[in-house]
């Protein structure tokens, strides 16, 4: 089994576990980002209070709305290419492959008398950026569906789209079926056709800098930690490195994340045009005009908690899975050598 495949599978496992733990925070954060009513700012509920309100008014299930496609997107992002977002925070097989190529080039340059043989920050940044761009183009449809499912509520006319049911079902007291993945897919297609699944792709492409910055910070901090300790790093150290790397990247790129969520959420119909966005630039200008700069940082506190926790768990689990897989492979190889008959 190649090192890239081990890292990819470990990253997928770590990403899924982190997603399961932090998903309710992610759902609340997406709703905070897409809240377009400035009047609500007078009395804004905290994260915990909002989670409680969702549970009371809509049930536990709504905190995990869109979980299935989100897990699919996370696994694909880990196995194929790097991702963000909040959907975001990964080191994977594509990055490992690209990094190995960069390291080989650095060693070749060292033999030629140029450089010290190490991969610099700029090269690490480019590795993450290139893999991130490919990921955005491949997985954006998944995250559009996830955003729709996270922001769908029973009471909000802005996000409300009930599946079509017969009059007999309503008269008989039968509630319409829950808002499922298929409903979100149909809604996006009816609203904007096939290209609707790539809404928010431009700010998401720009947001490639988030995992790039995170990847660069993590690698730099990890290298320094290894230099200080001759032995392998502890779980606690890896946890803190993942948290610090994600915190720095999140603070810098959060406004783009809000714009992306606004574009991917259901567009308001039959209401004030300030709630309707034609594209990235239109969304930015309307947010500045009607909400001010504060609008670009809605839900920032929730996002920091969710992202830092998810990134820390991901990196810690990934390192343990990689180390465990390598240990098993070495053990199997040693057993194979011992069991080989002597001639």
From TrEMBL:
GO terms for biological process: NAD transport; regulation of peroxisome size; transmembrane transport. It is found in: Membrane. GO terms for cellular component: peroxisomal membrane. It is a multi-pass membrane protein. Belongs to the mitochondrial carrier (TC 2.A.29) family. Gene3D superfamilies: Mitochondrial carrier domain. The chain crosses the membrane at residues 118-138, 238-257. This is Mitochondrial carrier domain-containing protein.
């Amino acid at each position: 089994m190649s090192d890239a495949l081990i890292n990819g599978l470990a990253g997928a496992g770590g990403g899924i576990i982190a997603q399961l733990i932090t998903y309710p925070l992610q759902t609340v954060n997406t709703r905070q980002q897409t809240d377009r009513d400035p009047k609500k700012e007078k009395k804004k509920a905290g994260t915990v209070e909002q989670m409680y309100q969702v549970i009371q008014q809509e049930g536990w299930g709504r905190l995990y709305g869109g979980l299935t496609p989100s897990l699919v997107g996370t696994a694909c992002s880990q196995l194929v290419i790097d991702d963000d977002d909040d959907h975001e925070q990964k080191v994977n097989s594509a990055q490992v492959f690209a990094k190995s190529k960069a390291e080989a080039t650095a060693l070749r340059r060292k033999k030629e008398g140029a450089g010290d043989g190490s991969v610099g920050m700029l090269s690490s940044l480019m590795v993450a950026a290139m893999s991130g761009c490919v990921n955005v183009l491949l997985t954006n449809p998944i995250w559009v569906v996830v955003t729709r499912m996270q922001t769908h509520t029973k009471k909000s006319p802005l996000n409300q789209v009930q599946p079509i049911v017969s009059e007999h079902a309503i008269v008989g007291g039968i509630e319409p079926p829950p808002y499922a993945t298929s409903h979100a897919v149909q809604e996006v297609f009816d609203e904007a056709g096939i290209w609707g699944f790539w809404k928010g792709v431009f700010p998401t492409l720009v947001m490639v800098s988030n995992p790039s910055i995170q990847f660069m910070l993590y690698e730099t901090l990890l290298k320094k930690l290894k230099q200080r300790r001759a032995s392998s790093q502890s779980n606690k150290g890896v946890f803190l490195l993942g948290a610090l790397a994600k915190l720095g990247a999140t603070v810098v790129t959060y406004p783009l994340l809000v714009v992306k969520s606004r574009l991917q959420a259901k567009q308001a119909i039959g209401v004030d045009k300030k709630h309707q966005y034609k594209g990235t630039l239109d969304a930015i200008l309307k947010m500045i005009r009607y909400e001010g700069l504060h609008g670009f940082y809605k839900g920032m506190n929730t996002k920091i908690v969710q992202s830092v926790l998810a990134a820390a768990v991901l990196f810690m689990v990934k390192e343990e899975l990689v180390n465990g897989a390598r240990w098993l492979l070495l053990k199997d190889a040693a057993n194979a050598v011992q069991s080989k008959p002597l001639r």
